[in-house]
Amino acid sequence: MLGLVVAALVALGLVVLSSAGGANAVRLHGDQYFFMKRQFLYLGAGLLVAIFMAAFDYRRWKDNWIFSVLFYVAVFALLIFVFKFKAVNGSQRWIKLGPVNIQPSEFAKLATVIIVSVFLDKASWRVELFARGAFWPAVFIGLMALPIILEPDFGSTMVVVAAGFLIMIVAGVRILHLVPFAILGAGVFAYKVGTNANRMARLFAFTGWQPAVSGEAAKTVDAAAERAAYQARMSLVAIQRGGLKGVGLGNSMQKQYYLPEAHTDFIFAIGAEEFGLGFSLAVILLFVAFFALSVYIAAHARDRLGKFLVLGMAFVIFFQAAFNLGVVCEALPTKGMALPFFSYGGTNMISAFFAVGTIFSVGIRALAEEDTSAKRLREAIAKRNRR
Question: I need a surface site. Which of 188, 311, 315, 387 has the fewest CB within 10 A?
Fold first, then answer.
């Protein structure tokens, strides 16, 4: 069932991208199907990663814990290396390798889930102690979040921290031990947002509150807030135009440069415009089903590590989806965060399938062990009956 849900999300994403990416593909690359061609390549790579991760025994992350450490260190190194490249739209998030851009913060979410899950599983009952349960996992989370927030990428920072803390809570870490780290993290996050003009403009646009400034400073703030609110307004226009039935595949007006990020962060709005309310509800229900099925798999995992990994990986995808939909519907401040399985982009697609493959790895082995236990039980009953 989980595989069918993921397949449905991917299929819907490809259909919407075939329309949403056309105008920007022509403008930027002179090829209407440029993004579709690249997305199919990313999808192929993602499927290979998912198959590999499903075949990979997740228990090796703990049994050969050096794998977990090396993966964490490699991702952290990539996050540092990203500052060697020029900023794009005020952020240094990408490593450019020829025609390919890699966004290490996508892999940072996965690495955080793995290292925290392995550490807390190995800690066993010691999770109730401050050092083993709270301090060191918080250090792992903080080290990964620090370069991300310096890029700055506030969305990925939220995902990394929230996923890490979720695993800590599920593992049984005392809430009282988490409080000082939560306060520290919230303070750093608030400071970075407060000193970033672009993010503050987005908050002004969302809340309608205006800072007490005048003259040229007020004009600057107003202009920044207007730019920040533009995409959210255009997104709502797209959803309103779609109504109940939609305007039909390929008939979106907002993708014609009215909504600049139509093929990435705001792709859901184009789908709602072309396919209407039914599409919107289907996407929401599919992501809810994805998370519910993942929770079911976690509940039937054969060990704590499997439970932690499944919940962490599923949360990373579900959190991003929920936040993206909230931004598109203007329920949350504008923030660039991809919609998993829908938004154009290789790193996001591959990391999402990495997470799906890990969930499958846990589920497959849980089923195999259940079948083995049932077989042994049947053999024992048959042997007793023969006696």
Answer: 387
Low-confidence stretches of the chain (pLDDT beneath 70): 208-225, 227-228, 371, 373-375, 377, 387
* CA distance readout (Å), 85 to 77, 96, 109, 181, 264: 14, 8, 21, 31, 22
**Do residues 203 and 193 lie in contact, with contact meaning Cβ atoms separated by under 8 Å?**
yes
Residue type, 106: E
Give, in degrees to the nearest 5, the angle at Cα 89 between 272 and 283.
20
The residues with which 95 forms a beta bridge, in sequence order, are 102
pLDDT (tens digit, 9 = 90+) per residue, 207-241?
Answer: 766 665 555 555 555 666 676 678 888 999 999 99
In this structure, which amino acid lies at residue 42? Y
Determine the straight-line distance between the first and last CA of the chain, rounded to whole angstroms. Answer: 42
Torsion angles phi and psi, residue 151, rounded to 5:
-60, -45
Q: Is the peptide bond before 333 cis (omega within 30 degrees of 0)?
A: no
Region of residue 208 (phi > 0: left; psi between -120 and 50: alpha; otherwise: beta): left
User: Do 69 and 115 meet the contact criterion of CB atoms below 8 Å apart?
Assistant: yes
HEC-encoded secondary structure of the chain = CHHHHHHHHHHHHHHHHHHHCHHHHHHHHCCCCHHHHHHHHHHHHHHHHHHHHHHCCCCHHHHCCHHHHHHHHHHHHHHHHHHHCCCECCECCCEEECCEEECHHHHHHHHHHHHHHHHHHHHHHHHHCHHHHHHHHHHHHHHHHHHHHHCCCHHHHHHHHHHHHHHHHHHCCCHHHHHHHHHHHHHHHHHHHHCCHHHHHHHHHHHCCCCCCCHHHHHHHHHHHHHHHHHHHHHHHHHHHHCCCCCCCCCCCCCCCCCCCCCCCCHHHHHHHHHCHHHHHHHHHHHHHHHHHHHHHHHCCCCHHHHHHHHHHHHHHHHHHHHHHHHHCCCCCCCCCCCCCCCCCHHHHHHHHHHHHHHHHHHHHHHHHHHHHHHHHHHHHHHHHHC
The reply to whether the predicted model has a pTM over 0.90 is yes
- What does the alpha-carbon distance between residue 281 and residue 294 come to, in Å, rounded to a whole number? 20
